[in-house]
Amino acid sequence: MNDIDSRLHDTGRAFLAAAWARLREERVVPPPAFHPYLEVGRDYFGSSVMPLAEYRALEVAIAASHPRFDAGRPLREREFPGGLIFSFLETFIAQLTRAQEEFSPDGPAAEQSLRDLIQAVRADTHEVACCRVMSHMTTPDGKPVEFTNVQVQPVVAQAAEHESELQRIISTVIPGATSAYGRDRPNVYAPPESVIIARDSGAKPFDLAQPLSHQIERFMLLVRLLKPGTSESVAEVQGATHTVREFKPTVLRFRGAGPGFGSPTQLAARVITLGSDDVSRVDGLGRLLTAAEQPRTGMAFTSFGMALQKFLLSFHAYGWSEQIVDLATAFEAALSGKEKDDVTLRLKIRASTLLSTHLDPPEQIFKDVGVIYGIRSALVHGGAMTEKTLLKEIRKVSTVPDGLPDGSAIAHVVERLRDLVRRSLLARVCLAASATSSWPLDADTGVDAAMVDDHSRKVLREAWREALTGIDAVASADPPLT
After folding, report:
1. pLDDT tens-digit map of 113-160
2. What are the distances in angstroms from CA 345 to CA 247, 366, 368, 453?
3. Alpha helix ranges (H) inside 271-342
């Protein structure tokens, strides 16, 4: 151990003894075993320990240990010891409590925490991870699958052990991850569930979380386009992967907070299964989407960008009516073009022409779009509809099985519209990314004329399927079998 490490070790040990004594006086410690994670500002005040001479000594020792704490550095580039000191103290208390040790500044928990502190002080870069809990997602064999930028880790456990296994997976990546929830965990049970994990390292850990979260969202966009499913984001834990850190675990809760037991998504659950053979498909679709989007300098938003956003928002909705509105907006942005007259008719014609297969004939698509848009119009244009009329209309949709309970029938209508939107987005991506760019994302001149010509219609329909064939994903052009 060199002189710097020895000084950190000695001042750190003295601080733990003094801080424990002060917090014990204030009846903060020992915490209950069920909730071992303390947080400054919530469970105790920083002013309880900052006046201690031992705190100031440790602060000076840390500041002298690495150039990034130098007072002469620009404020944006400078780090402050305080964040590490409080993390060090809270890490020690948690380790002591979980190990059911009696307090000792010389015990195993103290020694481990001191080693973690020294490692954190000396580090030039920090690893950050985002762990997003997804409903209705698994892998064929229950084992993790590595994709280009993320890992999918299924939660394999019986119902009684589900929560503990889920937290074990996240805590393996982000130690102490359960501290992010406080005392309010996102209690959602929508099996099979998976955790999507993304990691990166850098000198500024707080700058890494948002790009990693966007990376997961982009991955889920590609997966949802390729595979019809009801997989929703439940919650995401973000934080540094080292135990002593300035970037402590935090939790991101999504709009809608994932599918609860009364959710329409839960009533028509469709599981996404991801295997190793899907890695090349996801990468391939990512390349097609990048080629199709093309940078559009100076644009605040685009119609296709809005279509993608609303498609994703439908997975974070609070109820079926919100899902219908989001998906209808995405449908229009994807297919309707710039003309404002006869939008519903244009959607019915374009969707039935472009998306029809032997499993989903054009007349079926034409009829379903008309029924769903009647419901959508009542929702957004100040209309009204009785419950009896609503239930009568939804049972006209071709994918609603006979005899379903009312809530489940509505959920199947949502999934019918979502699948039509999914395939519309896929078609637009593939057609825009092709060498001839037969339907660019920012234009639709001549599209309607092409759809009334037998040859041109066939060319359009086959072109986007050929693009999917090129990435071994032509099955994505078909509707789900159930």
Report:
1. 999 999 999 999 999 999 999 999 999 999 999 999 999 999 999 999
2. 52, 9, 12, 18
3. 278-293, 303-313, 320-335
